[in-house]
């Protein structure tokens, strides 16, 4: 049964083992495997392949995968016949030619996520994508069954993105040594405490480490989760030194990684987590690293970088497709996240707004309600807010800490993610404030489709009252009939108010109900009103 | 007496009438007047002068001032001897040489305002400058004594910046024709209603119009007010057509204006008011206009551009020295303006946050208290908030509307500006949140100098409680003794609390008073706590 399952997945993802298979689904992956014994460092060999297909020619970089084998991976982006030819200084790797047929994508394959318009995302096939992600830094690097449990938890929770570290995290000095590293080890010595000190050969990679990460990313693809892969992080503290690589080593690593992984349709590049804490890397390195990733990714996957709280980055640079922000302040009140959106004019993801958890610090101790509140403060204005939870039994016991090592969710807010996504998926268009800065409460999702989030306020009723201005949609007119649904975002209920409302003519900037109608509200916080046209 | 006064002012500003005067104060103005009869359009003549002085060489552009006279204006930026030589294709304008001695600046002359560090301003002589400005679009273009009354009002109120339009504003169809225009009139016809329709010669300027603006800017300099000159605006509506000039005409106008006025030490360039409403100008024109101004201003005066509410501009471009923002949302609550500051990493001036007034609209009907509240919400985090007031007796009667035509202030908030500036001027450093996004209430002005704005909240007491983190200053230590002053920003009182506080050791992120001390507060809104070290 297991064998059968793997075989099916192979077909589903269009992963080829060699030349034999010439059909691959759109946004699937085609892999060419070329045996070659070379002199010197095989990781130094330049190998590219040019794929020419319907309306598109793409040149992709190959890579050495160990065992005297070079590989080229390709993600076809249009259906139809593609021909390819390789280029290399090594004769046996040069002028290798072939043809593949790109067929319709399989079920659940919508292609990579792209920026849609100014503020939002869509899959390549045109399906809307609202990112509702979580975070687990080290889940891929944990031993045993835990990674598979993490994938199950993600599937159950309905998160559709995860932020995760490519390099293993050094949680504390007693955190065990990982079983694999991405680079070849030149030498291991011991420090005065008997701990290993590694000397790396940054010019030689360990393909098994990359293959493991790739397998994890493919598992995420199967459950519709985008892999927001964090390429550098400061949580190494010099233990392994991946937070202080020379510039050249960093560039080499990024070129190798993008050659291997650009063909993964669910990959996103996050240059760093808290890049400003990588104090051994010079600030100007980040431009070089960013350019390296963008220039070596022929598919232009989503790309951003993450800073410490409220530091903000130059996300206006064209290399960054969206802003990946750490700052809770913009989602702590009404309309604030809209200001960030208005400034950057790109999709905004608040990737860190503090986490649900029980940690004895200010960033890991939100209640589930507070996270859900922050999530909706972001969502209501058309920005996105990433989840994370860190429940720990003891300051040194990371075993239950999903943020750290994945596994099983312990908290409360994750249970509301599926319901939240239902509300989002029902929208005709992404949310946007109707009248930015003049009315921080009322959002539109199109003509005669409004949402008002009530946040923490508990009030007995809501008087029908909408702005005339409706963002980039036509202004609200007189005589439109609306129903109002009261959505309890915490308790996950939707109750339709039994009376239909009908708009007055505009009174200055607002319209009201002709009968001065009101909706009685339950005495609960975290309510959301959905106000939509009825016949 | 009037003659004597003008003579003194001439000396004070170092304005020369010709070659005779060879001493000019630093950041004063030296003017060379060169008679020349030329063929063709004298405004087409290129004339420059290179001034070489201590450590600096500056090339400035001259201009045709009518009456067969060309002029070169120069603002020396260092004390000492400067020599100059002119360049032109016209022999009589070429190779004119001379020397001037730049002497110490006179009283009240601190030089032009420059950006200081990341978020703030200083005068060229190092004196701190906190912009507390107001707005009067058309004050220069009003007939009679009104402009002089405006200057008196500005002096009385202690505003130190004013936003004002270079081109006259078309308030309504009945607004009278101005007595002068900046361009030569080719032809006047009448429309079907008998109103004049002008055809302009955009290649020929009216020097008298520019001279009038210059005289107004000099009057502002004398009372220490920076002239934030708005170079384009949409409030023409096609009546005179200055909102829809061809690109070439716009560039020509900006080159002429900068040649005439870059030597005015108190000039700031505001490319436009609500640039996005100038719908007849293509978006890309603004890059050209901005580059024209910056490249033709040898002194790099402050430069920005202003948009409609919440639209925000690419103030990260190097040409913009600061952000000139229209948006009330960031100053409607605690810490929000800090987010804007954190993103742009430049000085932030909220140049339009709605206005105090009695207009029947949402932008001109703030109470004086509400404006003062927004002012302090900006100031407390180290951003700046411009004032404006528009009191009108009738929707068509602009005579009392300071925003429109200047004159005399009618409102309440302007009376608090002098007091506000006293508080600012007493700061050892500009304000900045101690712990951005974690504590949106507490600001620092240096080591052991804090300010907390209480806004609209009325509460009986304030328990001594400060963050350990103190922005870029050393962390707050145990055993520091503080006094607390309760400043009523509306009633303009300062009351020192009689008990001295002494800090505990940090308790996580906060420090408290060793005796759990509290300050009893008056039952008033708009209070500000100033918490400073005592011996």
Automatic annotation (TrEMBL), chains A, B:
Keywords: Signal. It comes from the Bacteria. This is DUF5060 domain-containing protein. Residues 191-363 form the Apiosidase-like catalytic domain. Residues 23-88 form the DUF5060 domain. Residues 1-20 form the signal peptide. Residues 438-532 form the DUF5605 domain. PANTHER family: DUF4038 DOMAIN-CONTAINING PROTEIN, LMO1036 PROTEIN. SUPFAM superfamilies: (Trans)glycosidases (SSF51445).
């Amino acid at each position: 049964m297991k064998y059968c399952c793997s075989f099916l997945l192979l077909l589903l993802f269009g992963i080829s083992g060699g030349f034999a298979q010439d059909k691959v689904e759109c946004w699937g992956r085609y892999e060419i495997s070329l045996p070659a014994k070379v002199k010197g460092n095989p990781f130094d060999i330049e190998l590219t392949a040019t794929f020419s297909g319907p309306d598109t020619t793409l040149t992709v970089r190959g890579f050495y995968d160990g065992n005297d084998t070079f590989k080229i991976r390709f993600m076809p982006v249009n259906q139809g016949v593609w021909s390819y030819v390789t280029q290399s200084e090594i004769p046996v790797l040069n002028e290798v030619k072939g043809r593949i047929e790109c067929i319709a994508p399989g079920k659940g394959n919508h292609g990579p996520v792209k920026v849609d318009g100014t503020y939002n995302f869509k899959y390549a096939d045109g399906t809307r994508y609202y990112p509702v992600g979580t975070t687990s830094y080290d889940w891929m690097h944990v031993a045993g069954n835990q990674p598979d449990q993490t994938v199950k938890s993600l599937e159950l929770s309905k998160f559709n993105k995860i932020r995760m570290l490519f390099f293993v995290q050094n949680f504390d000095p007693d955190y065990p040594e990982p079983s694999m590293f991405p680079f070849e080890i030149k030498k291991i010595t011991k420090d005065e405490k008997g701990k290993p000190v590694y000397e790396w050969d940054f010019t030689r990679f360990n393909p098994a480490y990359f293959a493991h990460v790739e397998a994890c990313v493919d598992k995420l693809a199967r459950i519709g989760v985008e892999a927001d892969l964090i390429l550098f992080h400061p949580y190494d503290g010099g233990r392994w030194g991946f937070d202080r690589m020379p510039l050249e080593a960093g560039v080499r690593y990024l070129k190798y990684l993008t050659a291997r992984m650009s063909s993964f349709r669910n990959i996103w590049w996050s240059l760093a987590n808290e890049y400003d804490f990588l104090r051994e890397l010079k600030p100007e390195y980040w431009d070089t690293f960013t350019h390296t990733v963008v220039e070596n990714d022929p598919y232009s996957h989503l790309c951003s970088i993450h800073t410490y709280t409220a530091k903000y980055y130059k996300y206006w640079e064209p290399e960054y497709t969206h802003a990946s922000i750490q700052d809770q302040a913009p989602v702590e009140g009404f309309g604030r996240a809209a200001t960030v959106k208005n400034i950057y004019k790109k999709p905004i993801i608040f990737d860190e707004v503090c986490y649900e958890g029980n940690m004895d610090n200010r960033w890991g101790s939100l209640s589930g309600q507070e996270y859900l509140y922050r999530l909706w403060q972001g969502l209501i204005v058309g920005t996105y807010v990433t989840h994370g939870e860190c429940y720990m039994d003891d300051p040194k016991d990371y075993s239950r800490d999903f943020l750290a090592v994945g596994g099983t969710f312990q908290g409360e807010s994750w249970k509301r993610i599926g319901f939240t996504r239902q509300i989002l998926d029902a929208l005709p268009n992404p949310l946007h404030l109707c009248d930015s800065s003049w009315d921080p409460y009322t959002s539109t999702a199109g003509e005669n489709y409004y949402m008002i989030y009530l946040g923490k306020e508990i009030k007995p009723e809501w008087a029908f009252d909408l702005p005339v201005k409706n963002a980039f949609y036509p202004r609200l007119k007189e005589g439109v009939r609306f129903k109002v649904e009261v959505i309890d975002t915490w308790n996950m209920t939707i109750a339709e108010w039994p009376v239909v409302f009908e708009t007055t003519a505009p009174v200055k900037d607002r319209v009201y109900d002709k009968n001065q109608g009101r909706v009685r509200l339950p005495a609960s916080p975290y309510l959301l009103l959905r106000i939509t046209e009825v016949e």
